[in-house]
Amino acid sequence: MKSREIHLLEYLKGDPKPENYKLAEADVPAPGEGEVTVKNHYISVDPYMRGRMSGIRTYVGPFELGKVMEGGAVGEVVESNYEGLKPGDFVNSMFGWREAYTAPGKALQKIDTSVLPPQSYLGIAGLTGLTAYVGIKRIIDLQEGETMWMSAGAGAVGSAGIQFAKAMGATVIATAGGPEKCDFVKSIGADAVVDYKAADNLTAAIQDAAPKGIDGYFENVGGTHFTAALNTLKPKGRIAACGMIQRYNDAQPATITDNLTFIVGKSLKIQGFIVTDHADMMDGFVRDLSAWMAAGKIKPAETVIEGIENAPDAFMGLFSGRNTGKMLVKI
Amino acid sequence: MKSREIHLLEYLKGDPKPENYKLAEADVPAPGEGEVTVKNHYISVDPYMRGRMSGIRTYVGPFELGKVMEGGAVGEVVESNYEGLKPGDFVNSMFGWREAYTAPGKALQKIDTSVLPPQSYLGIAGLTGLTAYVGIKRIIDLQEGETMWMSAGAGAVGSAGIQFAKAMGATVIATAGGPEKCDFVKSIGADAVVDYKAADNLTAAIQDAAPKGIDGYFENVGGTHFTAALNTLKPKGRIAACGMIQRYNDAQPATITDNLTFIVGKSLKIQGFIVTDHADMMDGFVRDLSAWMAAGKIKPAETVIEGIENAPDAFMGLFSGRNTGKMLVKI
């Protein structure tokens, strides 16, 4: 069997461009002892992957040049020499941007597709959902009756987090870019929405949306969003710093208004986190998510692009905001 | 009895100036039932007071214009109608910038001057010392063998914190301004000192002083110090944000290099705090401090200015760095 796959050709400075990527073809070997062959149905493209394309070690190492890029994918077992998996089973892997692969069965996670469609495990029921859950529940430690601001509310983590925070009994305000995304954010339950592209003064717009201030801020954007959060947080407010997508493609360091004294003056807590450091929360997450879904409180949201050859395009679309909800590539 | 005292005449924008303050004279009434009259020996001037001079409510309200400014002071009881205190006893109060006062005995804290001189209770054994202790022990949660960077190392909180962190078994690097202060910081035990006024590139200088990176940063300064801390902290590093003196006199917001993505990329934790929220740590602090002093590990450091009329000058001196250790006004 042949499989088409995406390679990274060079480490990036500034915006990702189509010529940074190459579509290649590889042979998929027949499975050896303990191995299975999987045909992917969906692959995940995520903002954090930009860091791995920079050639710099942060919390994960860089992608290897000229090899298939790693990342979350769900697929169907088509051939198996591993007793824990049989053809027709669905599995979650980190084997990335390719149509098919052969791998040891024990490196794969079998998923239950009886309640949720397989692609949910790349989104609201997977690391994306767990990321939102960890940020809200552990880092912000959001309490019933508090007010949270979710940035990038139409994104994968944002749209999950808005629904989780509502399910926890909080008031949620959200920011998103453009009227279409703002409508989407309202449709999933946000109490107030600010179109940051239309706001002259983001601080004033957030103050209008949450006149009593905010208790928690979920940071996906950075830059002027961060500044506005420090301006609008109440004393003892908390920021869960999950991502700063506005900054990832900067070739040169940007500058920002220095209102960091609010950290002192309001006794704020700001904490960066990476979901894999909080894997201990998975069981509680699955329990809560199941209960919220059973109660009809959660609506998975996805933007689907077709074809492995369009995966770089889907990835680049994350930075121009082409997705509402989780961005997926359907194989 | 008469008492001279300092009033604030107007709320400040920018640098404090002598004409913002007025020396006034008041009558000290004889003590009524349950009251005592106290002659102050030392009053404390502290950077946080700048916030109370701005007319803006942060964690404490602003000073009242045309009234004596509040603040820590130690003095001797000269007359008493309160059974818990007798003439000759020393007390700690928050009654501020004045030579003498009459107050209810139960509003005062009796201090033990048998081991430490009374002014220590305004410095290393008082809120100043507790501030350093809370930041290091609870916010940074400094572990034996880790490396901490103390900013404003020659200041009141800084010089206490350097000695506490060393006593806890950490490696301590410190920043201070000018060769004299750097010598002082070394004399109290810092393992390495950086003169930030002489450093072209503070990040590079910190990297030289701590080649393996820093685990904790104690923030008293802000601005370029904060930027350098984000650059040099190890993954999972912690910042205790106690003050940002570089910013307090800004009339207009400054700008700063935006390297905040390190908060995400290195899973950093940054927490602002105010010592009065952590009064529960007082007992543990007194226990640890007593043990460290008994072991000869702690050396109180003070800069003393004489005369209540010079209190505004002493306060302004905090911003030009005229103090090593705790700045005190002797009455």
UniProtKB/TrEMBL annotation, chains A, B:
<dbReference type="InterPro" id="IPR036291">
    <property type="entry name" value="NAD(P)-bd_dom_sf"/>
</dbReference>
<dbReference type="InterPro" id="IPR041694">
    <property type="entry name" value="ADH_N_2"/>
</dbReference>
<dbReference type="InterPro" id="IPR020843">
    <property type="entry name" value="ER"/>
</dbReference>
<protein>
    <submittedName>
        <fullName>NADP-dependent oxidoreductase</fullName>
    </submittedName>
</protein>
<dbReference type="InterPro" id="IPR013149">
    <property type="entry name" value="ADH-like_C"/>
</dbReference>
<dbReference type="InterPro" id="IPR045010">
    <property type="entry name" value="MDR_fam"/>
</dbReference>
<dbReference type="InterPro" id="IPR011032">
    <property type="entry name" value="GroES-like_sf"/>
</dbReference>
<keyword id="KW-0560">Oxidoreductase</keyword>
<feature type="domain" description="Enoyl reductase (ER)">
    <location>
        <begin position="14"/>
        <end position="329"/>
    </location>
</feature>
<dbReference type="Pfam" id="PF16884">
    <property type="entry name" value="ADH_N_2"/>
</dbReference>
<dbReference type="Pfam" id="PF00107">
    <property type="entry name" value="ADH_zinc_N"/>
</dbReference>
<dbReference type="GO" id="GO:0016628">
    <property type="term" value="F:oxidoreductase activity, acting on the CH-CH group of donors, NAD or NADP as acceptor"/>
</dbReference>
